[in-house]
């Protein structure tokens, strides 16, 4: 932080930089971009309809510009963390009322930033295109709901839509644990407390430990990635609360295996038992480009039935894909293969997409 002090103060009020920021934000609006990428030696790049393109009429970005623009977005604590860790993620609402998740990092010794637009209106589960099997998870009474998938598959919007559904329809105390706080909720019928890791709680695991000792009905976690947090999440689910969590996994088997392996070997039998008893459901989702050029949500859903619970408890997770396939008639089960085939039947994706996606899913799940 000391390193940035006077130099930062001299740069923050640079009017020309502020004008460039406004032009970039205006371009995001005009072209309906979802992401903005800023790195030294390149023009500002935005993602439109899934493809990267340069922002028109913008010069190559310089080191001094990047330092000025990035540091102006950070408070003192954030700058200290950036200096120590070399990367961080924050969220910021700009003058045009648009909110972005901003990832700041170094590349080749220079500051860079990737900005992802946070929707100002939380979509409903129906608007997201989630199937009925997934929609029912918005109203579970207790247990752990995992939302997984590749980066950029809108897992954050899925759990936000669940929270907003409860906010509109139930009188609950809801707590979010986020890295950082992205979607800003407005209390409706519920009371929602949003806690940011590093500012309001020291870690996800510690935040979940606090929740065990508080009067909380529903929890949202945007990054369930470390072992301590996974174990605490199962404890929270086992205490009768609902917990919605994003995990970095691309298959249901992979996600459940990671949770079980977060426990020491001698405790994994107990972990499987707790997971079988407290897992309310898993949504494995991804976005694909449709024939029309927009994005289509494909979602695999597993709400454990008795055979699946038995598989989890015995640790035979490799049997899950077959168990899901034979349970397709169950309203809580939907395979990715079925999701892909239905999208093709509706004319949303091509036969080539089916050939590309279905074999991959059979390998992954």
Describe the overall structure.
By secondary structure, the protein is an alpha/beta fold. The chain has 2 domains: 5-118, Beta-Lactamase, CATH 3.30.450.90; 125-364, 3-Layer(aba) Sandwich (Rossmann fold), CATH 3.40.50. Helices cover 41% and strands 23% of the residues. It has helices spanning 5-12, 15-31, 63-72, 76-85, 125-128, 132-135, 155-169, 204-212, 227-238, 252-261, 268-278, 306-314, 320-326, 336-345, 351-364; strands at residues 35-38, 45-48, 51-54, 87-93, 99-107, 110-118, 143-148, 173-178, 191-196, 218-221, 242-246, 279-289, 295-302, 333-334. The strands form 2 sheets. An 8-stranded mixed sheet has the order 9-8-10-11-7-12-13-14, with helices on both faces. The protein has a 6-stranded antiparallel sheet with strand order 3-2-1-6-5-4. α9 links the parallel β10 (218-221) and β11 (242-246). α9 packs across α11. The protein is globular and about 65 Å long. The termini are far apart. Mean pLDDT is 91; it is low at 8-13.
Short description:
The protein is of the alpha/beta class and 365 residues long.
Provide the descriptors you would attach to this structure in a database record.
Beta-Lactamase, 2 domains, 365 residues, Rossmann fold, six-stranded antiparallel beta sheet, alpha/beta
